[in-house]
Amino acid sequence: MPPVREAVTANLAAIRERIARAVQRSGRRADDVTLVAVSKTFPASAIRAAWDAGLRHFGENRVQEWESKRAELADLPATWHLVGHLQGNKARRAAGLFHAVDSLDGLDLARRLDAAVAARSGEASGGTVRVLLEVRLAPEETKGGVEPADLEPLARGVRALPSLSLAGLMCIPPFAENPEAMRPFFRRLRELRDALQDALGAPLPALSMGMSHDFEVAIEEGATEIRVGTALFGARG
After folding, report:
1. pLDDT digits (tens, 9 = 90+) for 71-83
2. Which end of the chain has fewer CB atoms surrounding its CB within 10 Å, N or C?
């Protein structure tokens, strides 16, 4: 087995053990949690190794980086997620590159993406794009995200766009060495999702929260998707 594939396979086994323990503690099943392999800065060969190890969901942070890898992986019928911020001027490109945009945080951006997806509706990659709304849970953070007070209006606006399918929420809390410090943020996102479901009268099954160092806590608080990069692929250069 090539060194990269061997390392990714071993890392994935360790991650799955962590997932299994976390779901057991929370009374859930491993099938309730989707592992999105975040391949930012890692080459196409690492993504292929993760595919060979059994992963089917992959996340990239930048439109242009995924464009540079895409040709080498065109044979993989994976689900490709954009997990980083989407700039409005890249909405058209993103519509043709990703099955899911997990970081939507504004209605103008949503409208641009919707129009771009609709424009491709006659092509093989047309149809709808799944989206998650990124929520900013720490006011002092400079990260993107919609404020909780503006979440319901944004969700209603996105649900009115025919080429986007709103599935749930995402957050990136401020980093803390102690994973337990992240628990209030993950719990808050779940509570916001539950309240939003009630307000909309529609299911929002997806909660994307938790990364390499804290995904067990996120699972305990209801994560249905975790975004894992370094624990799977190793440290970024």
Report:
1. 999 999 999 999 9
2. C
Rounded-to-integer distance, Cα 224 and Cα 77, Å: 21
Query: Looking at residue 114, what is its pLDDT?
Result: 96
For 37-84, give the DSSP string: EE-TT--HHHHHHHHHTT--EEEES-HHHHHHHHGGGTT---EEEE-S
Q: What's the domain count of the chain?
A: 1
* Domain coverage including residue 153: 3-233
Residue ranges of the chain with per-residue pLDDT less than 70: 1-2, 121-126, 140-142, 237
Within 8 A by CB and 6+ apart from 81, the residues are 36, 57, 58, 59, 60, 98, 99, 100, 101, 102
Check which CATH number belongs to the domain holding 208 and give it: 3.20.20.10
97: its two tokens: 């590159």
- Residue 158's contacts (CB-CB under 8 Å, 6 or more residues apart) are 104, 107, 110, 131, 133, 164, 166
Question: Distance between CA 77 and CA 189 in Å, rounded?
Answer: 31
Share of the chain above pLDDT 70, in %: 94
